[in-house]
């Protein structure tokens, strides 16, 4: 059981790891852009209300860069900027906008990636299975016999978990006249990891068909 738990946790962690791996470059671009903007704003001297030169703190610089780069624009703080500060702000405003556009574009591409979607769907499926509190049967294959078996279990007030390599068969469960939702995943049931995600190692698993 311990080995099964470790294997399940590793697969669920793969969603975060895959996300960080694909988004590594955009995140680095944003971090570097913000760091350069903040350091520059701290390094360029400003002027207080009495005309005395001052340097703003890293906290104020981070605050200004954060609300300006996200197009909120509260204004110049803690004092009005000098010409040099405004020139620097004009530069990093465009840099951060480009960085955000790049990151958002990569994020949208990742959300549409079929491989990433499969990993996310597998993680959601495993969570749905773990939330089941009643005994359940794992049905491998949603052909004519498998579908009838799922319907029979549902008619008797039981719970079922379904696996099938055919995406269309899995999607058909969404419109089936069933009493409760059946967690289903389009995956190869011959893979041990798929069966583990389907709850094979759980005590509530009453059987596998």
The number of distinct β-strands equals: 6
Q: Into which percentage range does the β-strand content fall? A: 5-15%
Main beta sheet strand tally, sense and closure: 4 strands, parallel
**SSE arrangement, N to C:** HHEEHHHEHEHEHE
Structural class category: alpha/beta
Given as residue ranges, the uncertain stretches (5+ residues, pLDDT < 50) are 1-8
- Give, in spatial order, the strands making up the sheet with the most strands: 5-4-3-6
Radius of gyration: 27 Å
Mean pLDDT: 89
Shape: rod-shaped
Instruction: Kindly state the percentage of residues in helix.
Output: 55-70%
This entry's quaternary arrangement is single chain
Distance between the termini: 21 Å
SS element count, helices? 8
Explain what the structure shows.
By secondary structure, the chain is α/β, with parallel strands linked by helices. Helix content is 59%, strand content 11%. The chain is built from eight helices and six strands. It has a four-stranded parallel β-sheet with strand order 5-4-3-6. Strands 1-2 form a two-stranded antiparallel ribbon. Helix 1 runs antiparallel to helix 5.
Features:
two-stranded antiparallel ribbon, alpha/beta, 209 residues, 4-stranded parallel β-sheet, disordered N terminus, 8 helices, rod-shaped
Summarize the structure.
Helices cover 59% and strands 11% of the residues.
Write the layout of secondary structure elements.
Blueprint: H1 2-22, H2 24-43, E1 46-47, E2 53-54, H3 58-69, H4 83-111, H5 114-130, E3 136-140, H6 144-155, E4 159-164, H7 167-172, E5 184-186, H8 192-197, E6 205-208
């Amino acid at each position: 059981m311990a080995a099964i738990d470790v294997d399940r946790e590793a697969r669920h962690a793969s969603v975060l790891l895959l996300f960080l791996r694909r988004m590594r470059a955009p995140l680095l671009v944003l971090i570097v852009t913000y760091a350069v903007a903040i350091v520059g704003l701290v390094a360029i001297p400003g002027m207080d209300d009495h005309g005395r030169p001052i340097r703003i703190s890293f906290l104020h610089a981070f605050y200004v860069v954060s609300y300006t780069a996200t197009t909120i624009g509260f204004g110049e703080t803690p004092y009005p900027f000098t010409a040099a500060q405004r020139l620097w702000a004009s530069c990093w405003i465009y840099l951060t906008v480009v960085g955000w556009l790049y990151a958002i574009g990569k994020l949208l591409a990742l959300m549409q990636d079929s491989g990433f979607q499969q990993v996310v769907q597998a993680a959601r499926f495993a969570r749905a299975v773990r939330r089941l509190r009643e005994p359940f049967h794992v049905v491998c294959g949603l052909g004519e016999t498998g579908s009838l078996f799922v319907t029979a279990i549902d008619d008797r007030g039981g719970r079922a978990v379904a696996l099938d390599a055919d995406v269309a068969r899995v999607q058909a469960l969404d419109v089936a006249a069933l009493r409760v939702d059946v967690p289903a995943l389009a995956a190869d049931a011959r893979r041990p990891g798929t069966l583990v995600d389907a709850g094979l190692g759980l005590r509530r698993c009453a059987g596998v068909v």
